[in-house]
């Protein structure tokens, strides 16, 4: 494995990345966002924010429903449903001024994939910024009921024989996720690979928008999928399949979605960005209270948001998990965290893991300078400014941009200071 913490981004992307960095530098010079004044009014009163019908969009939805954007001087913020993560990307490329969106509830790796032009038309970089994390934990890996007798849970190897038999019969094994290189893609790949199943060779990975997962499983279009809630719980409630594991069992306290914004919008509107952040952070605190889970489920279930029965949202929000295979767990700590355990703070070390995994699967070059890329996109400084103005307790503000070493269910350890060692320890990967 080539050393990744090199002095520059890989040669093949140096021109694009340099141009992106130059653009950001130019915008920051014109609109310096470092100097926040407590009394500074937002430069604009609104922004267009996209969301996908997933429980981890709750901070944006609650901030809208509870008037928190208005409270912090942003009464014209619109929270707009997106059909898929691909649509989210396309609308971010357009930008709010061109009938797209300015920011979004987004899969944490997506801003990096857009920032480097990996997933944009003609590979044109769209400078992006991550302002906050929206949640930890509570995605699910679910399996069609045809595989119930395998007993598969955390150990994906229990599927190997069944998969091989199906392939021998000339049938395709389909593993669905929501966006190539996104969180769900990385979770299902990690799980399969840990069980000795190569996600590039032994199965076909397909892209399915979150709200369409259950319907596709129902008609037999996939064997396994990884998605956020409420779709795993709905699958179980409809008796179509079962949850093998939640992603918190793969990596306890893992980061998931982010609040991503176009970098040009953030730099032109630093006070507005901070005001939106404060609204979202206040919503995260509200969402985190167990006393609010029922009301939250009712809000999210509304037609304009998820259009699902609140019960499909509520159970796993409270840590009650009916896996659908005879396993029922009550009061677990695998529920979605919105604020506790520094859930809102965008640790740069976490972004480093997502980039390392995308190197593992060939989305980024092996010699990508992870630290340099993270420093361009991750704006934890804006989070800290918003936290200060919001009066967040010092105990709730991390003292470091790194959460340190992370340990996964299979014993693998990711040291953000040495991603190469982590990648070298993995036996199944696309990167060489």
Automatic annotation (TrEMBL):
It is found in: Endomembrane system. Residues 1-37 form the signal peptide. One of its GO terms (cellular component) is endomembrane system. The keyword Membrane applies. InterPro entries: NrtA/CpmA_ABC-bd_dom, TAT_signal. Its main location: membrane. Keywords: Cell inner membrane, Cell membrane, Membrane, Signal, Transport. Belongs to the CmpA/NrtA family. This is Bicarbonate-binding protein. It comes from Rhizobium rhizogenes (Agrobacterium rhizogenes).
């Amino acid at each position: 494995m080539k050393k990744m913490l090199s002095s520059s981004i890989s040669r093949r992307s140096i021109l694009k990345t340099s141009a992106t960095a130059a653009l950001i530098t130019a915008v920051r010079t014109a609109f310096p966002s470092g100097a926040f004044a407590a009394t500074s009014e937002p430069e604009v009163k609104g922004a267009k924010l996209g969301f996908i019908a997933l429980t981890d969009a709750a901070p944006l939805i609650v901030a809208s429903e509870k008037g928190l954007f208005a409270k912090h001087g942003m009464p014209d913020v619109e929270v707009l449903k997106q059909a898929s993560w691909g649509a989210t990307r396309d609308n971010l490329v357009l930008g709010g001024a061109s009938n797209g969106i300015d920011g979004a509830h987004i899969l944490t790796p997506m801003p990096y994939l857009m920032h480097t032009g990996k997933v944009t038309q003609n590979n044109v970089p769209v400078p992006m910024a991550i302002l906050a994390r929206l949640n930890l934990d509570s995605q699910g890996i679910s399996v069609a009921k045809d595989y119930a007798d395998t007993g598969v849970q955390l150990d994906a190897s229990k599927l190997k024989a069944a998969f091989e038999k199906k392939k021998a019969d000339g049938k395709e094994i389909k593993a669905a996720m929501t966006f190539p290189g996104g969180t769900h893609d990385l979770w299902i790949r990690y799980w399969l690979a840990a069980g000795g199943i190569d996600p590039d060779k032994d199965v076909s990975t397909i892209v399915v928008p979150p709200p369409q997962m259950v319907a596709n499983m129902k008609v037999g279009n996939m064997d396994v999928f990884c998605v956020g809630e409420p779709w795993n719980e709905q699958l179980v409630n409809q008796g179509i399949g079962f949850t093998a594991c939640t992603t918190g069992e793969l990596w306890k306290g893992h980061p998931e979605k982010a609040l991503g914004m176009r970098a040009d919008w953030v730099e032109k509107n630093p006070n507005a960005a901070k005001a939106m952040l404060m609204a979202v952070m206040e919503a995260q605190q509200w969402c985190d209270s167990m006393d609010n889970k029922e009301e939250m489920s009712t809000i999210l279930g509304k037609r304009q948001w998820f259009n699902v029965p609140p019960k499909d949202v509520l159970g796993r929000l409270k840590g009650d998990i009916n896996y659908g295979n005879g396993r029922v767990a009550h009061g677990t700590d695998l529920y979605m965290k919105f604020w506790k355990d520094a859930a809102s703070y965008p640790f740069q070390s976490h972004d480093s893991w997502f980039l390392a995994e995308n190197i593992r699967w060939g989305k980024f070059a092996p010699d990508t300078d992870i630290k340099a890329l993270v420093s361009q996109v991750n704006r934890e400084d804006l989070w800290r400014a918003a936290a200060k103005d919001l009066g967040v307790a010092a105990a709730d503000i991390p003292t470091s941009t790194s959460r340190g070493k992370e340990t996964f269910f299979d014993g693998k350890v990711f040291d953000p200071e040495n991603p190469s060692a982590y990648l070298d320890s993995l036996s199944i990967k696309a990167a060489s």
